[in-house]
Specification:
The complex is a heterodimer of chains A (472) and B (386). With 472 residues, chain A is α+β, with helices and mostly antiparallel strands. Among the domains of chain A are: 149 residues, no CATH class; 105 residues, no CATH class. Chain A contains 20 helices and ten strands. In chain A, strands 6-7-8-9-10 form a five-stranded mixed sheet, with helices on one face. In chain A, helix 17 runs antiparallel to helix 19. Chain B is α/β, with parallel strands linked by helices. Chain B has a six-stranded mixed sheet with strand order 10-9-8-11-12-13, sandwiched between helices. In chain B, helix 8 packs parallel to helix 9. Chain B is flat and about 95 Å long. The interface between A and B is large, with 84 and 59 residues. Strand 5 of chain A pairs antiparallel with strand 4 of chain B.
């Protein structure tokens, strides 16, 4: 890149930054950096610069770079949630294209800073990751690359199974410290409260009476933390690596929870900001084409950019021009669209965003549908009812798309065996994968492992003892 | 606001981990060699350099939903209707299905693009020509030239500039007392000179025999073909002075070219002794056992004419007496893995009646996966037979 080009880019950043602030965005300062394709793909496949080494990153990197080399896809930017934030831009991108990307990036950073789910993320994570990578490298040196790699293989297989509700954990910790409040006096509406969790309350109590030393006392969703703390076989260095992976995953969880919102927010703002810039006709045409590409629908899956973008636009419209009914029913005043979307970007995550703001009209406009496999051979559209589509999207995003697996018993059979339960909510596990993953869990736990799930309506327990699989 | 533009040319983390991944692919191939060896896309690759083969052990396993048993949300172009078919199973539709998704229920393969040479290298790692003996040596000219000598005369293109300057400095130092470069004289000049390396190698000849009688069906021929494919490849990569003689037979035997050997289709009965007789004749005429290591290999379905068995055993013994190793592979019916004829088949006759069994390796091949163990049995390091 020539000096003149860099100057032009810096000027554009200045202009877009001021415009964004003027429109109400409130980002962290951003460190912009132009990098070659190999580097942007590297950062993209590791999700953070300077992260530890593992072949799975190499596999992702290879795949991404191959797509780039073949001209099938391009990665134009990677933004890192940090303060100051990092934005990596692809070398050789045209100026107008970069203008759109810069506006996009600034909106992402605004989202990182202001969305409440990000409020607990470590804003110095990049430094932290580099330290992690160094420590893992030391372990490789000390215990052998193969040993460390095999351990990473095992831990990465369950890395998503951490407790994502950061706020809940904090409350819990506080509760644990405080003396327990005396139970409230029995009242007239107690049975209403009990309706919330009828199943859990009753059996838990009876079991408690029979087996008072339940371990863990409540089903534990954070497999990584539980195994790290209680595994009978792990070495200190292994627990250390688990703690690092746990920390990195905690950092990524809010991003997994807000994919649609974050991309929608960034796409919404790159259009708004670019419309306000002084673009030549040619530039505007190029921008319009790029934008159309970003928000184009994809076959067989959802484009988060598009869905998020449409929902934000729709919210703004509905709060700018409420219907007489909305004015009467909710007291909604016209002209509050902007204000409303800022509130949404602060308070929601993808699940609540979809549940609260995906309307029938939008489902129809986006032409969303439900599809499933018929007769083991064809994928067929089976439903276009908007509520069911909305609920399916929410279900798919619950636990960011991963099945919920809980530790039910860490001392199963009185032999410190590990009993896991899949919290079945109507979607079956991939059993082949579950078996392979159990082998990894066995490596981490060192004793027999069991997994309870449901197949074809019946309870199935998978067992693995380090050599053989069996089920009943 | 500043735009940073650092030099990232030393950044190669992605590349290094890509290498780690490649290493894993290699390991996985090594573990799956027996299914890869008989893979049609390799045997029938027709000179292609790379092929795609499925590798199971490279998945990143996780607890995940069964994609095929769940509902998904998709997006149409504005005209979607209930009942529309949007794709077929196995086309890699939707999220969570990486490229290279397999078509078997619950099983996904990671497909890797691998160079055939790479696979060959892994297969051949454990193979060698057994009982390689010191026969009268035969000089072969290696194709390599080496610049190993320095001379004072030569042609200008071979001038060794560094040595010439050193000589010049040495002379100047002697003459003037200071090590410096001065005017060049003829005696300073040094020339590189090349020499041809001459190595001595033992010679080996492989006599590849194949039954092409009517009872050798497609599957059997394919098995023999894939075995010889690797055998020929192996021999041609490991030793340059290996000759291969191809013989096909039904009731009569004849010497054929490599191409004919692999493509020929014939019919008729089986008289094994005809092939052995031709092999003995070829050895007598062209490959004196004093000079040559001799490896006859024979593939058949074992369905020999009953009356020919005595003769076949006698000639096999004769062959064994003059060769390093005699290999016999008997190919069974596809799908009848457990069915083995206890008598009547040539393999059991050989096992019972051959006089010198030390140098005889007989294997039974029922499935494609048996080809690799067979290769190892024939060419494996002695003492670690499979």
């Amino acid at each position: 890149m020539s000096d003149a080009e860099i100057k032009a880019l810096e000027k554009a950043i200045e202009e877009i930054w001021d415009k964004a602030r003027e429109l109400g965005l409130d980002p962290f300062p951003i460190h912009f950096e132009i990098v070659p394709a190999t580097v942007i793909y590297e950062i993209g496949s590791y999700a953070l610069p300077g992260r530890y080494s593992h072949w799975s990153f190499g596999k992702a990197y290879h795949k991404m770079k191959l797509m780039y080399d073949l001209g099938l896809s391009k990665l134009y930017e990677v933004v890192i949630n940090a303060n100051p934030a990092y934005a990596f831009l692809l070398e050789g991108t045209s100026l107008i294209h970069n203008k759109m990307i810069i506006a996009h990036v600034i909106a992402h950073v605004d989202f990182f800073k202001n969305n409440i789910y990000f409020s607990k993320t470590n804003r110095r994570m990049v430094d932290e990751t580099v330290t992690h990578a160094e420590r893992i490298r030391e372990y490789e040196f000390k215990y052998g690359r193969k040993t460390v790699e095999a351990f990473l293989d095992a831990i990465l297989s369950i890395q998503e199974h951490i407790h994502p509700d950061l706020f809940i954990r904090e409350e819990r910790a506080e509760e644990a410290g405080k003396p327990k409040p005396s139970p409230p006096k029995p009242g007239k509406y107690d049975d209403l409260f009990a309706l919330d969790e009828p199943k859990r309350e009753t059996p838990l109590k009876t079991e408690e009476e029979e087996a008072p030393r339940r371990f863990p006392p409540e089903p534990e969703k954070d497999l990584v933390r539980f195994i790290m703390t209680h595994s009978p076989v792990l070495e200190p260095w292994q627990r250390d690596i688990m703690a690092m992976i746990h920390e990195e995953m905690e950092y990524f969880v809010p991003q997994l929870q807000t994919k649609i919102m974050n991309e929608g927010w960034a796409s919404y703002w790159h259009t708004r900001i670019l419309r306000e810039l002084d673009l030549t006709d040619e530039e505007f045409v190029e921008f319009a084409m790029l934008h159309a590409h970003v928000v184009s629908p994809r076959k067989g899956s959802l484009n988060p950019y598009y869905v998020g973008f449409k929902i934000f636009e729709d919210i703004e419209r509905r709060w700018d021009n409420p219907t007489p009914e909305e004015i009467e029913k909710f007291g909604r005043q016209p002209g509050n669209g902007r204000e409303k979307i800022f509130e949404v970007r602060q308070l929601e995550n993808d699940i609540s965003f979809i549940r609260n703001y995906l309307t029938q009209q939008l489902v129809e406009e986006l032409d969303l549908y439900i599809f499933e496999l018929r007769d083991e051979e064809e994928w067929v559209i089976t439903d276009k009812t908007w509520e069911r589509i909305r609920d399916q999207m929410v279900a798919d995003m619950t636990n960011f798309g991963f099945p919920v697996i809980e530790v039910l018993d860490g001392d199963y059979n009185g032999n410190r065996e590990l009993y896991l339960r899949h919290r079945y909510e109507g979607i079956e596990l991939d059993i082949e994968y579950a078996k392979k993953t159990l082998e990894y869990v066995y490596k981490l736990w060192g004793r027999d492992v069991h997994l309870e799930t449901v197949v074809d309506g019946e309870t199935l327990v998978l067992h693995y003892d380090g050599e053989d699989h069996w089920e009943d | 606001m500043l735009v940073h533009h650092h030099d990232w040319s030393l950044q190669r983390k992605g590349y290094l981990d890509q290498e780690r991944h490649k290493e894993r692919v290699r390991e996985a191939i090594r573990k799956n060699l027996s299914s890869i060896v008989a893979n049609e896309s390799i045997i029938l690759s027709d000179g292609k350099k790379t092929i795609r083969i499925p590798i199971r052990s490279l998945e990143e396993y996780k607890f995940r939903y069964d994609y095929r048993k769940k509902k998904h949300v998709g997006q149409g172009a504005g005209d979607s209707r209930v009942g529309d078919v949007i794709g077929r199973e196995g086309e890699g539709l939707g999220p969570g299905r990486g490229p290279g998704a397999g078509d078997q229920p619950g099983v996904e393969y990671y497909e890797a693009e691998v160079e055939i040479d790479e696979i060959a290298k892994l297969i051949f790692e454990d193979l060698e020509l057994p009982y390689l003996e010191e026969k009268s040596k035969h000089a072969v000219h290696s194709r390599q030239l080496r610049f190993g000598e320095v001379r004072k005369t030569g042609i200008l293109p071979h001038l060794d500039k560094r040595r010439t300057l050193l000589e010049n400095m040495r002379r100047m130092a002697k003459e003037t007392g200071r090590a410096q470069i001065g005017p060049l004289r003829k005696e300073d000049l040094r020339f590189k000179s090349w020499e041809e390396e001459i190595r001595y190698e033992t010679n080996a000849v492989v006599i590849a025999m194949m039954d092409v009688s009517g009872s050798m069906g497609e599957f059997k021929k394919y098995i023999a073909r894939s075995f010889y494919f690797w055998m020929v490849r192996f021999l041609r990569t490991k030793y340059d002075t290996v000759r291969v003689v191809f013989i096909t037979h039904h009731t009569e035997a004849k010497e054929v070219t490599e191409e004919q050997f692999f493509t020929q289709g014939e019919s008729g009965g089986t008289v094994v002794s005809s092939a052995y007789r031709l092999a003995l004749e070829i050895i007598r005429q062209r490959f004196n056992p004093k000079d040559w290591n001799i490896y006859p290999f024979h593939f058949s379905d074992g369905d020999n004419y009953y009356s020919d068995n005595d003769e076949a055993v006698r000639l096999a013994d004769e062959l064994i007496a003059m060769c390093n190793l005699f290999g016999y592979g008997e190919i069974g019916e596809e799908g009848y893995t457990n069915y083995r004829r206890s008598s009547g088949a040539l393999l059991s006759i050989f096992n019972e009646r051959l006089k010198n069994k030390d140098r005889f390796v007989g294997v039974r091949i029922d499935r494609k996966e048996d080809v690799y163990p067979a290769l190892k049995a024939f060419f494996g390091r002695r003492g670690e037979t499979v």
